Amino acid sequence: MKKKDIKDILHNVKEGDLEVDQALDNLRDLPFEDLGYAKVDHHRGLRNGYPEVIYCEDKTTDEIKGIVEKMMERNQNILATRADEEVYEALKELTDDLEYYERARIVVIQKEEIELSESKILVMTGGTSDLEVAEEAAITAEVMGNTVERAYDVGVAGIHRLLAQKDKMAEANVIITVAGMEGALASVVSGLTDKPIVAVPTSVGYGANFDGLAALLAMLNSCASGLGVVNIDNGFGAAYLADSIINQIEAARE
Q1: Residue 168 to residues 72, 163, 195: CA-CA distances in angstroms?
Q2: What pTM did the predictor assign?
Q3: For residue 36, what pLDDT is reported?
Q4: d(CA 77, CA 108)
Q5: Helix (H) or strand (E) holding 250
Q6: Mind listing the domains of the chain with CATH numbers?
Q7: 174 vs 185: CA distance, rounded Å
Q8: Cα 134 to Cα 176: distance, rounded to the nearest angstrom
Q9: Angle at CA 102, nearest 5°, toward 100 and 106?
Q10: What are the tens digits of pLDDT across the range 118-160?
């Protein structure tokens, strides 16, 4: 439930279009609804600006379906991350209003129209091998209502590919850089622009990459300014942080 939903309920009560008991019924599951195996946080949209997102790994399909069913009662858009084909097939039994983004491993159930921001997020990758994490970030950001551009396979091994993206970097309000190996992309991009950078280390790389630890430490130790780092392979977290920044920019425009 979003702030707008609460305002609509209060307005309808004030205008006499909604009985008090009906309003209470609409609010009965705030702040959360206990399903036994999960406590669905219906209050999150009010607190954080976006409803709870379902992380599917290590949940059974029945648990995921149960959570989705309760969230669908709110007639809101639903984002399920780290979802495989089995989860997608299970959720198709509940609704036809869904789309599966296989590369991003995301299922989106869209009940409300998504209005895109005037501000823009640019998602960049070092290589094609980083696309799974990058698409998780890009799709998440789009579902949250952001205008997203992509610039993939522009790593520092061919620096001319990155320099060719100057116009896109200049137009963006926030840049998400996704890279494995030594994770140099974030530092170089941050040195080329005054935009806030959200850096995502990936587990892509050879043995001494240590499943992304080398890239994570390189990004944390960057000498470039204006750089924030999320956890390894956390495209979702990068998108959420970028969305928070964009929301502040959009609010300042109003």
Answers
A1: 37, 10, 11
A2: 0.83
A3: 67
A4: 7
A5: helix 235-253
A6: 31-109 (no CATH), 120-253 (3.40.50.1970)
A7: 15
A8: 8
A9: 55
A10: 899 999 999 999 999 999 999 999 999 999 999 999 999 899 9
Beta-carbon contacts of residue 206 (< 8 Å; ≥ 6 apart): 181
Q: Let me know how many helices (H) and strands (E) the chain has, helices first.
A: 11, 11
Distance between CA 211 and CA 213 in Å, rounded? Answer: 6
Question: Which of the 8 DSSP states describes residue 64?
Answer: H
How far apart CA 144 and CA 15 sit, in angstroms, is 31
With tokens 């823009």, the residue in question is 120
Instruction: Say yes or no to pLDDT of 205 above 80.
Output: yes
* Residue in the structure block whose two tokens are 């809101």: 76
160-197: buried (b, 16+ CB within 10 Å) or exposed (e) per residue?
A: eebeebeebbeebbbbbbbbbbbbbbbbbbbebbebbb
Tokens at residue 42, please?
């219906």
**Tell me: the pLDDT tens digits for 34-68?**
566 676 666 666 666 666 789 999 999 999 998 89
* Amino acid in the structure at residue 122: L
C-beta atoms surrounding 30 within 10 Å: 13
Only one residue has tokens 């299922």, namely 107
Tokens representing 7 are 């305002």
Assess contact for 82 and 107: CB atoms under 8 A.
Answer: no
Give strand ranges (E) for 75-164: 78-81, 98-101, 106-109, 120-125, 147-151
Tokens 């006499």 found at: 16
